[in-house]
Amino acid sequence: MSVARVTHAEANLLTLARCVVGSGPAPELTRLLLVSVAPPTKLGPTSAALLEDTLARGVAFAMLQEGGWTNEVDGRLWSHPLPPLHFTANTVRLLQWALRLPLAEPEVVALKFDGRLTPAEEVFAALLLERARGTAAEATLMSQAVLRELPLVQLMHAATLGRVGALTVSPLTKAHLPWVRGLLDLLGDTWLSAELLKPQLAQPKILARVGRAQSDVAASFLDVVDAQQHRHLARFFIDAAAAWLATRSGVNDLVALDPESPLRERGEARQQAGALWRVLERLEQWDQQHRGTRFIDDGYDVAQALVKDWERLGPNGFAAARRLVAELESLPT
Predict the structure, then answer these.
(1) φ, ψ for residue 205 (rounded to 5)?
(2) Maximal CA-CA distance, the chain
(3) What pLDDT, on the 0 to 100 scale, is given for residue 1?
(4) What is the DSSP letter of 298?
(5) Domain-wise residue ranges, the chain
(6) What was the pLDDT predicted at 3?
(7) Burial level of 72, CB count in 10 A (0-12/13-18/19+)?
(8) Distances from the Cα of 34 to the Cαs of 95, 105, 164, 219, in angstroms?
(9) Which residues, 6 or more positions from 16, have their beta carbon under 8 angstroms from its beta carbon?
């Protein structure tokens, strides 16, 4: 059995790619992002083939781990053909840029792509931002305009993107939905993490910006899944809310604003902080529709499956969400 030979620079690029898809050591990811490493200017045929294999296998496996394994309303991820895992030179550009620059620095040369990313590349970009969450590279990555405009990145990281700056929503399309299906667990985790982080955002303007980003992204997403009859893809909102309510219940667990900040700003921030919980108001309406679907109606089986799947939040959870929204909308003291 022959051993593939690549240059040191190519090895760094391949290692970073493996870290992003979850098959490389986390310390190596941090090192490669925070220290300037000379990237390969061009990939040889061996390293190009290895990268293609890493991306295809890695992204597919990541999607199986991050939600595709669950038995959703329409079956597991592999119950339906997955669109092609297509990667372009833009993925190499992303990896080269990430290696070349010490991303802990506040100002770096902006990342640029040549044309639009494919959905598979959007998944890879979203995973990169997830792996970098909590590191010194997070803010630099989240501030890159070409990453901020990606629909799947916005859906996964709405709160963090909003913390960095105002966010303009890029709506998902029908073509994105199979990829969302493979990320449902991770989406639940990122939206829960956003709620757990909110008490640390003492500045009202920052918290308000986070909430607006969440609200805009969620509303756009729910419009798409409703129109495409894929309401089951909203499950990650249920997961995040149920996990939060399992150990928390009140506004003090969600908001801890600077009492010296203006009352008007604190009031706006409190309202915007309820973004996830206002999403649940719409999901509760859907839940009631599902419960009211009769045996003779079209879509009965799907409706009953959704009722059962969302029961972990259920009427009590929806009621708790309504109380939380009402408390957030009251005047701050």
Answers:
(1) -65, -35
(2) 71
(3) 42
(4) T
(5) 1-116, 173-333
(6) 53
(7) buried
(8) 13, 8, 19, 35
(9) 24, 28, 29, 32, 33, 95, 98, 99
Q: Which residue from 275, 241, 82, 65 is spatially nearest to 177, judged by alpha carbons? A: 82
- What per-residue confidence (pLDDT) applies to 4? 66
The Cα–Cα gap between 330 and 313 comes to 24
Residue with tokens 């970073």: 16
Those residues of the chain that have pLDDT short of 70 are 1-4, 296-297, 331-333
Among positive and negative, which fits the CA dihedral 136, 63, 186, 144?
positive
The half-sphere exposure of 76 on its side-chain side, counting CA atoms within 13 A, is: 9
State residue 138's pLDDT score.
92
Instruction: With 0.90 as the threshold, say if the pTM is over it.
Output: yes
Distance CA 82, CA 87 (A): 15
Residue 72's SS3 state is strand
- Integer Cα distance of 268 and 266 in angstroms: 5
CA distance 24 to 20: 7
287, burial (CB in 10 Å: exposed 0-12, middle 13-18, buried 19+): buried
